[in-house]
Amino acid sequence: MASSAPTQKWSGVGVGSEDRQKPGSGVAGQEGAALATPRLPRKHHSRGSHVTGAGRGHAAAAAALPAAAPGPGRVYGRRWLVLLLFSLLGFAQGLVWNTWGPIQNSARQAYGFSSWDIALLVLWGPIGFLPCFAFMWLLDKRGLRVTVLLTSFLMVLGTGLRCIPVSDLMLKRRLIHGGQLLNGLAGPTVMNAAPFLSTTWFSADERATATAIASMLSYLGGACAFLVGPLVVPAPNGTSPLLASETSRTHIKDLIEAVLYAEFGVVCLLFSATLVYFPPRPPLPPSVAAASQRLSYRRSFCRLLSNMRFLMIALAYAIPLGVFAGWSGVLDLILTPVHVSQCLPELSWFNWCLPGSCLLSLLLILCFRESYDRLYLDVVVSV
């Protein structure tokens, strides 16, 4: 009768068919192994009977045996394509977020931005992170595909708003601010969903590497904005828009719009690829952890808040991230009073500091993969 039972389809909750067939996989497997242990028949013997002693010896030996270790699940080659799409989406989100800081002098001349406007354009990223719990709830309830599609669609809308051709500079500035806010709303998914993706698609020995790659590409995109902007958009000759010629202003505005159109095209391409192929989960779970039953959102949230170790790890991650996000986007604005602004079109070392450190960390991740030595190397690179 047990063999004719239908195979349970994996939906992210419960145990997958591959894990259920293994007697030592999870709690159900341990219970099955315990039930499958043969029991010795009860016989009435006199005191000191050697049969009773042997039965007790077998029972003690069976109880002392450790439970069978859970067997490995099945992994699919398509997991790398899913990781690539998600990582490129994070890269594009970081690049769009940090568009204006590295070219703030040119943006002032082309669109009449003030210092407050430049700071607010960068601030829309952290502001868009405020509804992060809503996105995490959507990820938990609707799965990876729906959340990533919504995120990429917000990025398409945001980058598209910035490209609407209008002659009114006030309206153009408002459209740019709205586009930056929509792109900021994509931040919670591309920066927080990496562990969920790695648990869903990758085995235990690949999970840390997948999480690190998916998380690193968002920072790499923000860092590469220091290269893309100054490479394409030249710095104005004068620091005041009143001293700049109309020809120079028009030329700089055209180059900025070329950057905006290019970013819009990249985001549309990634959205199309995600729409065509981004499955919510593999047919079979890669590990027991991926197939295990999940707690409710409210209950898991309360348990995490009461876990002191988790809170320490969360603070260790959040504090450096907040410093980086608050400082890197307005770095060019901060250095303007000391005459280091939109700074080095000759690609000197200063432009390569942030992208170079991100690429070095990514190289260490790929070289050392799941080794614990990588943790110490990452700490050294970060310091």
Automatic annotation (TrEMBL):
Entry's transmembrane regions: 80-98, 118-139, 146-165, 185-204, 216-235, 255-278, 308-329, 349-368
* Annotated gene: SLC49A4
| Polar residues bias spans | 1-10
Which UniProt keywords are given for this protein, alphabetically ordered? Membrane, Transmembrane, Transmembrane helix
Q: Which GO terms describe its cellular component?
A: membrane
- Main localisation: membrane
- Source organism's superkingdom? Eukaryota
Q: Which InterPro entries match?
A: FLVCR1-2_SLC49-like, MFS_trans_sf
How is it placed in the membrane, per its record? Answer: Multi-pass membrane protein
UniProt xrefs under Gene3D superfamilies: MFS general substrate transporter like domains
Which stretches does the entry tag as region Disordered? 1-53
Organism of origin is Leptonychotes weddellii
Per the record's keyword annotation, is Ribosomal protein included, yes or no? no
Protein name in UniProt: Solute carrier family 49 member 4
Q: Which residues form the signal peptide?
A: none
Cell compartment(s), UniProt: Membrane
